[in-house]
TrEMBL record:
InterPro entries: AAA+_ATPase (IPR003593), ABC1_TM_dom (IPR011527), ABC1_TM_sf (IPR036640), ABC_transporter-like_ATP-bd (IPR003439), ABC_transporter-like_CS (IPR017871), P-loop_NTPase (IPR027417), Type_1_exporter (IPR039421)
PANTHER family, per the entry: ATP-BINDING CASSETTE SUB-FAMILY B, ATP-BINDING CASSETTE SUB-FAMILY B MEMBER 6
Stretches that traverse the bilayer: 21-42, 54-73, 131-150, 156-175, 239-260
Protein name in UniProt: ABC transporter
Matching SUPFAM superfamilies: ABC transporter transmembrane region, P-loop containing nucleoside triphosphate hydrolases
Main location: membrane
Membrane topology: Multi-pass membrane protein
Ranges of residues in domain ABC transporter: 330-563
Length: 575
């Protein structure tokens, strides 16, 4: 666990972790020594020789003080280390998330990351903060006393040592019992947490269907309970046996001591008292050690999940920045891609010239969104090349690629901040005047005018206080402010009221002026007026051309157009 923690956090933390462990061992040894020192203190006292005991009392007092100091230092260190670890883990997770391909972020994974960075990190920081100390002392302190006992009274040492292999065996057995069900308990916990989030997020759908229950959550909670119960049932024999063996150890020491004391004056009474004090003092912690081991293993599981996340490959970044040979262009050349083994795109080639509008159309599931995601490098292609500004996107740094592209998707996410702050997310150093100009072009000024605090009105979490159309206008203002040469747009499918519709049309016209636009088009007007229409079907480009050219060709597009524009169906909504 410590080794893995050191590896995950890197060199700066490996040393403090090792130091903390060493400090704990020193503290445990000092504690053991304090027990052992009872012997030279008691020996003269039992003979009635107080003077001879005094120097040893001083040594004992010194050891106790040193022990208390060591305890204080290691407790401080452990707590500080725990807090620092939590911070470092959050940074490591955050840095890695920032470098992962955008396509990695599915809701289930986001749920897992949330759990990992909350309870998972708390579990992990608990190890140095408060689990390691009792675990180390419950093993090391008795070991020191038993070792010293070899020199004080070997028979008492033997009596203790016979039980040690048994203790070790039983503890390992208990650990194995816990470990066998750890994975199931853990997986059930993750599943239940994800389902709770899903339940909360889908309240609108559930209520619309008159449902207050959610079978999947119910099932996940039952599974979690069953997994916990199964673990307990399987581990109980081990825990009981551990308790029994520790009790047996105490009894063996007691019986041996009493036997030696009663069968003649051969036993060292002081050593016996020290050993008895130790066995009584450590019986309980030793029994608890089996359970503490389980908590440490749970933390180990959380750490393994963090490790797994950190091992998820990030998008490889080139060492040196690429060069744009044809700024503002997009090109897909023989692109093949699939989210899993099923190919979504087989061989897509298309070219979007600078400052032109290309409309992507095709049946639902034909891969329009996938094409746009590949241009923004949410994923890397399996075959073929995606070029932006003439450069292979894999040769561009994320910063370079993102400087070329603005993305306006349907599921616009706004931060719970003011309208102006949300627009400024497009370009952090924009002046107020620039923000206002972008807002005016995207007709956001109309929204700000009717809100109580104007541009400073907070939009609520995710922009909840605004309508879908209003959110999209803010996102268009963001893109206008960013002023990237290429705009990737997923046109809204939802029907908008007339005002919003007109405002968005005006905003999009402003956005596409002098820019390259690749749009997943749903409105007839957008498709009709595009410089180029690309029809996707069967994982490839079925046909491409202008509206007139494609109608003349009388192929798939003409067929769709005639059929669906009459029925106002397909994926095109009338302007
Ligand atoms: N994240 C994902 N994981 C797995 N499969 C996916 C994922 N996203 C899309 N797909 C699948 O890839 C195929 C193409 O989806 P895509 O969203 O690109 O189509 P689309 O043409 O944009 O569809 P629509 O018009 O309905 O939005 C679909 O079969 C879809 O189920």
């Amino acid at each position: 666990m410590i080794r893995r923690l050191s590896r995950v956090l890197g060199a700066p933390y490996a040393r403090p972790l090792r130091m903390h462990l060493a400090g704990l061992i020193v503290y445990a040894i000092l504690q053991g020594l304090a027990f052992v020192l009872i012997v030279p203190v008691l020996r003269p006292l039992l003979r009635g020789d107080v003077d001879a005991a005094l120097p040893w009392v001083a040594v004992l007092a010194g050891t106790v003080v040193a022990c208390a100091a060591a305890y204080w230092i290691q407790a401080q260190l452990g707590y500080r280390l725990g807090t620092a670890l939590s911070q470092a883990l959050h940074h490591r997770i955050g840095d890695h998330l920032a470098a992962l391909p955008l396509g990695w972020f599915t809701p289930a994974r986001v749920g897992r990351v949330a759990r990992m960075s909350s309870t998972g990190v708390v579990d992990i920081m608990g190890v140095p903060a408060h689990l390691l100390a009792p675990l180390v002392t419950s093993y090391v302190t008795p070991a020191v006393v038993v070792f010293a006992m070899i020199f004080l009274d070997w028979r008492l040492a033997v009596a203790t040592l016979v039980a040690v292999p048994l203790v070790i065996l039983v503890f390992r057995w208990t650990a194995r019992l816990f470990a066998a069900t750890d994975h199931a308990v853990d997986a059930a916990g993750v599943e239940a947490a994800n389902r709770v989030v899903e339940f909360a997020q889908n309240q609108a759908v559930l209520r619309a269907h008159g449902r207050s229950d959610f079978d999947q959550l119910e099932a996940a909670l039952l599974e979690q309970r069953a997994a916990g119960r199964k673990q307990l049932l399987r581990a109980v024999p081990g825990l009981a046996a551990a308790g029994l063996v520790v009790q047996a150890l105490v009894t063996i020491v007691l019986i041996t001591g009493v036997y030696l004391a009663t069968s003649g004056p051969t036993v060292d009474a002081a050593a016996l008292i020290a050993l008895l004090v130790l066995t009584v003092r450590f019986a309980e912690p030793l029994m608890a050690a089996a359970e503490l081991g389980a908590a440490v293993r749970m933390a180990g599981n959380s750490l393994a999940r963090v490790d797994e996340l950190l091992a998820t490959p990030v998008l490889p970044e080139p060492a040196t920045a690429g060069t744009f040979t044809t700024p503002g262009t997009i090109e897909l050349d023989g692109v093949g891609f699939g989210y899993d083994s099923r190919p979504v795109l087989r061989d897509v080639s298309l070219r979007v010239p600078a400052r032109s509008v290309t409309a992507l159309v095709g049946a639902s599931g034909s891969g329009k969104t996938t094409v746009v995601r590949l241009v923004a490098r949410f994923f890397d292609t399996r075959t073929g090349v995606v070029r932006v500004g003439g450069a292979d996107v894999r040769d561009l740094t994320t910063e370079q690629l993102m400087s070329q592209i603005s993305v306006v998707f349907q599921d616009v996410y706004l931060f719970d901040a003011g309208i102006a702050d949300n627009i400024r997310a497009g370009r952090a150093d924009a002046t107020d005047a620039e923000v206002a100009a972008a807002a005016a072009l995207a007709r956001v000024d109309e929204i700000a005018d009717r809100l109580p605090d104007g541009y400073d009105t907070r939009v609520g979490e995710g922009g909840a206080r605004l309508s879908g159309g209003e959110r999209q206008r803010i996102s268009i203002a963001r893109a206008i402010l960013k002023d990237a040469p290429i705009v990737l747009l997923d046109e809204a499918t939802a029907a908008l009221d007339q005002d919003n519709e007109a405002a968005i049309t005006a905003a999009l016209t402003a956005l596409s002026r002098d820019r390259t636009l690749l749009v997943i088009a749903h409105r007839l007007r957008t498709v009709q007026s595009a410089d180029q229409i690309v029809v996707l079907a069967d994982g490839g480009v079925a046909e491409s051309g202008t509206h007139e050219e494609l109608l003349l060709r009388n192929g798939q597009y003409a067929h769709f157009w005639n059929e669906r524009s009459r029925a106002r169906g397909w994926r095109l909504t009338p302007a």
